[in-house]
Design goal:
CATH architecture of the largest domain: Alpha-Beta Barrel
Shape: globular
Keywords: Flavoprotein, FMN, NADP, Oxidoreductase, RNA-binding, tRNA processing, tRNA-binding
Helix content: 40-55%
CATH superfamily of the largest domain: Aldolase class I
Cofactor: FMN
Largest sheet: 8 strands, parallel, barrel
Function: Catalyzes the synthesis of 5,6-dihydrouridine (D), a modified base found in the D-loop of most tRNAs, via the reduction of the C5-C6 double bond in target uridines. Specifically modifies U20 and U20a in tRNAs.
EC number: 1.3.1.91
Active site: 98
Structural class: alpha/beta
Order of helices and strands: EHEEHHEHEHHEHEHHEHEHHHHHH
Strand order of the largest sheet: 1-2-4-5-6-7-8-9
């Protein structure tokens, strides 16, 4: 069963093409408590699509897990939020931070920061349809609306609408001229603006996101804010999460080992393959398991040389562990 209020103390960011159900299952073998997010799913894909199971199914082991929705229609978002709750998600998150051209052409994502009243309506509409938390992930601004005063106005509107939690990527989004990748690195980080938000909205839970890669950074942010969201570092170096449970969730469980994680991936991979899946759809997500360790390059090569071959199966992991 979903937890009524998932903890945002440490979470993994929604990342298109990366945080699919296979990566989330894999990361859950490393951390039992970090909050995980789906890739963004658009309202159109849910309401007009014929295969919601492909977009929305997940393994029970993934809890706590949040569904991130993309859209600009309060009515459509509310309907999709209700569907997500019925699927068993622990939280509904609204995407107001993605700067891609595709998202902009649909008039949602980061460009919605220019329309705080609309985002507030989106929040309130979703909250009428679900009992689970409704949260918003957004930037500190967009070009043309990038002052702290603009950010304050935006947050005040969604706070009045009853948003349960906000996740703030501490960069503005530049909507013209920069790619999504460049928008993750070129606009400067403005952590102080997020800290200032917490001072101005002390009762609103706030998580910070953007450029955070180490435990010392996580610990520093947690002295000022309610949560820390990790993005690319979680994918590139997933074993960073091996001691997240003990450090931030007071867990007394035995720390995982990389070898145990690989062993626990074998039955999952076998089940997925027997259901008609291709093993490389799973194995591509675990290539960073030995990041920073001796043998990391050899591990990646061992998997990539084998996972695309005809007949590839879970024996790839069994053979690696037997070495």
């Amino acid at each position: 069963m979903p937890s009524p209020v998932p903890s945002h103390r440490v979470s993994v960011a929604p990342m298109m093409d990366w945080t699919d159900r296979h990566f989330r299952f894999f990361l859950r073998l490393i951390s039992k408590h970090a909050l995980l997010y789906t890739e963004m799913v658009t309202t159109g894909a849910i309401l007009r699509g014929k295969d919601n199971h492909r977009h929305l199914d997940f393994s029970k082991e993934e809890h706590p897990v949040a569904l991130q929705l993309g859209g600009d229609s309060p009515k459509a978002l509310a309907e999709c939020a209700n569907i997500g709750e019925n699927y068993g998600y622990d939280e509904i998150n609204l995407n107001v931070g993605c700067p891609s051209d595709k998202v902009q052409s649909g008039s949602f994502g980061a460009c919605l920061m220019k329309e705080p009243e609309l985002v507030a309506e989106m929040v309130s509409s979703c909250k009428t349809k679900v009992k689970i938390p409704v949260t918003v992930k957004h930037r500190i601004g967009v070009n043309g609306k990038e002052s702290y005063e603009d950010l304050y106005h935006f947050v005040s509107k969604i706070n009045e609408a009853g948003v349960d939690h906000i996740i703030v990527h501490a960069r503005i989004a530049i909507l013209e001229g920069l790619s999504p990748k460049e928008n993750r690195t070129i606009p400067p980080l403005r952590y102080d603006d997020v800290y200032r938000l917490k001072n101005d909205f002390p009762n609103l839970p706030i998580t910070i996101n953007g450029g955070i890669k180490t435990h010392s950074e996580i610990e520093n942010h947690l002295t000022k804010l309610d949560g820390v969201m990790i993005g690319r570092a979680a994918y590139d170096n997933p074993f960073l999460f091996a001691n997240v449970d003990s450090l931030y969730f007071e867990s007394k469980e035995i720390l995982p080992t990389r070898e145990r994680v690989l062993k626990e991936m074998i039955p999952y991979l076998k089940s997925f393959r027997l259901g008609g899946g291709k093993v490389h759809h799973v194995l591509r997500h675990i290539l960073g398991l030995y990041h920073g360790e001796n043998g990391a390059k050899e591990f990646r090569k061992f998997l990539t040389d084998r996972m695309h071959l005809p007949g590839a199966n879970e024996s790839i992991l069994e053979d690696y562990l037997a070495r």
